Amino acid sequence: MGVILAPMTSRRTLVAAALLVTLSAATSCSDDTNNDSNKASDTTTKAAISKAEFLTEGNALCTSFNATAEAASATVTDQASQIVFFTDVVAPGLRDTMAGIEALGFPAGDEALLQGLIDDTLEVLDTIEADPAAVVGSGTDPFASINQQLADYGLTVCGQAE
């Protein structure tokens, strides 16, 4: 989900960044205690979802998040509003999207890869939330690697960075 946090970026770029963040967060949500009982997906008790179904439903979740982020991006006019947009729209939306993707369960054999991507995304999201001003306006995309891996897997909507 191509959320690139650059100074006075276009709304399209902010939405793309939000999507990047959303997917990234979805694939990297974890807590520091590594308490597996808090994970949305307990693949030991669920039947595995097919990869095709996972991709269809996962990309649909990202499409929904992207639409919400796009609509909310109209309020972004400067760095301060970009930070508010990130903390009020992107971060919670991305966390919800990642939780939704995780709740789908993972295709057999892909559990470690996908859980790792979700965990990595959430770790990056946590870092940005701790100091959004350090990233907003930096011109860097902290989710670039994660987004590429998501897109390579087939979560193309989630991994897009426009």
Task: Calculate Rg over CA atoms.
Answer: 15 Å
Average pLDDT value? 78
| Fraction of residues in H or I helices | 55-70%
| Secondary structural class | mainly alpha
Overall number of domains: 1
Strand content: under 5%
In N-to-C order, the SSE pattern is HHHHHH
Number of helices: 6
State the end-to-end distance.
8 Å
- The assembly state of the depicted protein chains is single chain
Per the principal axes of the C-alpha atoms, what is the gross shape?
A: elongated
Q: Largest beta sheet, briefly?
A: none
Low-pLDDT segments, ≥5 res: 2-45
Count of DSSP E strands?
Answer: 0
Question: Short description, anyone?
Answer:
This protein has 162 residues and is mainly alpha-helical. It has helices at residues 11-28, 51-72, 79-103, 111-130, 132-135, 144-153.
List the helices and strands and how they pair.
Elements (H helix, E strand, L loop, with lengths): L10 H18 L22 H22 L6 H25 L7 H20 L1 H4 L8 H10 L9
Notes on the protein architecture:
The protein is an all-alpha fold. The chain has one domain. Helices cover 61% and strands 0% of the residues. It has 6 helices and no strands. Helix 1 (11-28) packs across helix 2 (51-72) and helix 1 (11-28) runs parallel beside helix 3. The longest helix is centred in the middle third of the chain and has 25 residues, at 79-103. The N and C termini lie close together (8 Å).
